Amino acid sequence: MKTSMGVYTILLLCSSLSSFLILSIATDTITMSQSLRDGETVVSAGGSFELGFFSPDSVKRYLGIWYKKISTGTVVWVANRETPLADTSGILKVTKQGILLHLNGTESIIWSSNSSRSVQNPVAKLLDSGNFVLRDGNDDKPENLLWQSFDYPGDTILPGMKLGINMITGLEWYLSSWKSTDNPSPGDFTYRLDPYGYPQLMIKKGSAVQFISGPWNSLTFTTYGFRNRSPNPIYRFNFVSNQKEMYYTSEPFNSSLVTRVVLNQNGIIQRFNWIDRTQAWNLYRTAPIDDCDSYAICGAYGSCNSVDYPECECLKGFVPKNVADGSNKCVRKMQLDCQNGDGFIKYSSVKLPDTRSSWFKESMTLEECKLVCLNNCSCMAYTSLDISKGGSGCLIWFGDLLDIRVSTENGQDIYIRMASSELGKKGHLLNDYTTEDQELPLFDLTTVAKATNNFSINNKLGQGGFGPVYKAWRLYIESRPLEIIDASLRDSSSLLEVLRVIHVGLLCVQRFPEDRPSMSSVILMLGSKGALPQPKQPGFFNEMNIVEADSSSCKHKPCSANGVTITVLEAR
Length: 572
Ligand SMILES: *[C@@H]1O[C@H](CO)[C@@H](O)[C@H](O)[C@H]1NC(C)=O
Ligand SMILES: *[C@@H]1O[C@H](CO)[C@@H](O)[C@H](O)[C@H]1NC(C)=O
Ligand SMILES: *[C@@H]1O[C@H](CO)[C@@H](O)[C@H](O)[C@H]1NC(C)=O
Ligand SMILES: *[C@@H]1O[C@H](CO)[C@@H](O)[C@H](O)[C@H]1NC(C)=O
Ligand SMILES: *[C@@H]1O[C@H](CO)[C@@H](O)[C@H](O)[C@H]1NC(C)=O
Fold this sequence. Notes:
It is a single-pass membrane protein. Keywords: Disulfide bond, Glycoprotein, Membrane, Phosphoprotein, Receptor, Signal, Transmembrane, Transmembrane helix. Helix content is 9%, strand content 34%. It is built from 6 helices and 41 strands. It is elongated, with a radius of gyration of 30 Å. One 2-acetamido-2-deoxy-beta-D-glucopyranose binds at residues 86-87, 89, 104-106, 108.
């Protein structure tokens, strides 16, 4: 018998019904002379993966691959997803023509691989990567494979698998969810590299887009959901685009990490890592992670911020079209005037919009990119294509901008086309991002408190992704104002004064300028003990310890009363 290197497993299966004794030998290889029957398995040389017949619902039989060393029976690939067998008569054969045939008890073809050519000595081998390959027994070269399971993913990506498109053969590597946990036939969801415009990863339900990763920026996709740190310390991400193929891969730096990415039956992409100590899969990351990850939830020119309520706001220079019906349409305050000159406003730290109608070029500077965009009236925005090494290349968008969200972790700058009359304006900054030439008054609560009778703001406020001002406001309106202040200082005799300063501070940073007290009221409020209005939600905040406030009070000069100083910082 012709067998290559492999793990030899002796399986003794006693059939209680017929009292036949079946002896079978499993290796990592199936040859023309040695087929695989239900009950037998092949195991990869390093013992990582096993291929054989299994039954997720205890009735229907499927041919598949699962982790050998992992007791949870995690299946990573299924051959006959849509054509299960009703019994254990299945058999897998390698034919002279160089194809794999999965036959049932009456020799009907249940599933088959295909191949562009035939070879002398075809062998099927399960590799330790989890890839099941068909090749010429005398030819080890990966590029000469006749067929490989990695080309036909199910719901799982293993390290080394590609997500993308082979432009020569038209083959697409993409994930499709299982119908349910016990039914591997393709469900509603797919996860693919969408090649239109500038490529981006996309989860779809049928033809409806559910989630977009944002474009690749040389380090990562700009998505918020993945929470990739750039560069990620555990995985190497790679995006390849050339004449032949376009694909995305990810693999752990340490190849002994057992990791997989799954598109589950609810359309959620999840990365799991196996933890030996606990003998369990650990969910490392997931996408989408929140409402803001729902595709275009805030509509064109809307921006989503998950720590805000409501989450959707119009970008600077845009206003809600119809406030009454609560719809998310944002329209320009000032119409563009392309012929007579528009300009751009820079928005920082955003997940870039859907790039399906975009154009890009690697060899271009940002300044050249701006000119290209300016000279085409349907260009609505531009940015750098590659943010490594200080930024290079050009990516421009045509038509409405969709699917923008605030992303402090992986966000990128984008320059959005504006009527020239919008450009020089100062003032309104609610829900807005930093604009190129503006000086913003910044109101720093920490500074306020430090300047006040030596009190300090609770350090914990700055933790966990919410801005400290937002947290302070939440605690205040939830009648938990003491938690804003350091525990050690809560018994102080000046506590009431401090709380009053914080209260007035929160009034000064309310979102709408018309709600904020005037300078003279601030002085009166700080000097008296009268009742104060409840502070409304603060304006746009981010993860830095600052809040951007508008100019109606405390602008450009410190305002002080009764020895209490409120410090107003200037940005840049
Ligand atoms: C094999 O499949 C064929 C076609 O689906 C079917 O007619 C036949 O009954 C099956 N045989 C067994 C043993 O299941
Ligand atoms: C090979 O089979 C797959 C389905 O398993 C099919 O989508 C693909 O078009 C086939 N390719 C060729 C070259 O026949
Ligand atoms: C890779 O991970 C294994 C298991 O956690 C560890 O023993 C090994 O030292 C790691 N190798 C490197 C190069 O970090
Ligand atoms: C602007 O770009 C669009 C999309 O690429 C193109 O169809 C159109 O011809 C361009 N217009 C000009 C004036 O270059
Ligand atoms: C402020 O408080 C700290 C710690 O309680 C103390 O060490 C420091 O001397 C105080 N500063 C003033 C100016 O009272």
